[in-house]
């Protein structure tokens, strides 16, 4: 009979021998923690310990784990078909999901292209913008403008629009497409965006708009590039600039979509509609990988009249029925509940729980927005030292760089939030 300790050791050893983890050496320099099950907001480790998950599995498990309604959706779809190619075929789950996404997002977004992951959704958006201008007879418009401190994914096109200096991809700088970058907005979320904040963007578009296909931004919240929050007014002014200089606007809502900022989509803070919208992460409630790129009817129509007479992209697992069925169930579950009040409650509890960190040495800033809580430090954390400190306190938080942050599942209760934020403050104090 395998004991918990033996299982732990076997999994640890097998992992070290063969598994390569994200943003890590192989074998890893620090510990990895074997998870054998998860329910609600708790991860159960192989040795029987439970951790309160403050990361929602990289921000996607908004309903927590092992939710009966989402489990049932997977099981029901599995009994019909797990997958079918999407070339020349369609299926009920995909049609329903596309209809839902169009209904929930603002006009004139009306076409939905499904893909496997957030990074691919961004690739699709970039290709869509470039192919659109080719079809318009403006093939010179191939460059993209992005914000510094931005992050859009790990595939090559997505890497090319991530921050080239402080981002994670500078090692590949010589082989990535050269894009244009402007400074990240420095106007606070609660304040207006002065015209001076748009000068750099306006100057670039004025000079180079004939070669620029699109501007891509993460609306309101720059995620993995620094957990920075900025004024929705910036997006309104950016929309006006893109219109003035005949440039498409892409919103990357992979991290912010489905309620994370307190609005169903972050674009609602600004009441601005992009030409192309990327969604992912929480789309399936964290059950499986799926993403979507939405665009306007005009973009689809123009591309249809291009040389190829089609948009040239097609993932093998595009619109996977299991993923689409789960996404439908996740969206229905979210909208059937008073989710806005839930996120507001989480925001108040995160603010209350993290506020003591403002008095600690080495803390540069403490900020919250929706179901996001961030402690920004003056110096980068030592992950090998910090991770075990959180596990010892019964919580799972995965800091990066100078940021100790949380994006918990929406279902997390008050006591668990207090435990989570208390652990974050304690660990920062110990540093």
UniProtKB/TrEMBL annotation:
Pathway: Cofactor biosynthesis; biotin biosynthesis; 7,8-diaminononanoate from 8-amino-7-oxononanoate (SAM route): step 1/1. Coiled coil: none annotated. Its EC number is 2.6.1.62. GO terms for molecular function: adenosylmethionine-8-amino-7-oxononanoate transaminase activity; pyridoxal phosphate binding. Its cofactor is pyridoxal 5'-phosphate. It is found in: Cytoplasm. Keywords: Aminotransferase, Biotin biosynthesis, Cytoplasm, Pyridoxal phosphate, S-adenosyl-L-methionine, Transferase. The keyword Lyase does not apply. The modification N6-(pyridoxal phosphate)lysine is found at residue 281. It holds the Pfam family Aminotran_3. It is an enzyme of class 2 (transferase). The record marks 23 as: Participates in the substrate recognition with KAPA and in a stacking interaction with the adenine ring of SAM. PROSITE patterns: AA_TRANSFER_CLASS_3. Belongs to the class-III pyridoxal-phosphate-dependent aminotransferase family. BioA subfamily. Catalyzes the transfer of the alpha-amino group from S-adenosyl-L-methionine (SAM) to 7-keto-8-aminopelargonic acid (KAPA) to form 7,8-diaminopelargonic acid (DAPA). It is the only aminotransferase known to utilize SAM as an amino donor. Homodimer. PANTHER family: ADENOSYLMETHIONINE-8-AMINO-7-OXONONANOATE AMINOTRANSFERASE. NCBIfam families: bioA, PRK05964.1, PRK07986.1. This is Adenosylmethionine-8-amino-7-oxononanoate aminotransferase. It comes from Seongchinamella sediminis. The lineage of its organism: Bacteria, Pseudomonadati, Pseudomonadota, Gammaproteobacteria, Cellvibrionales.
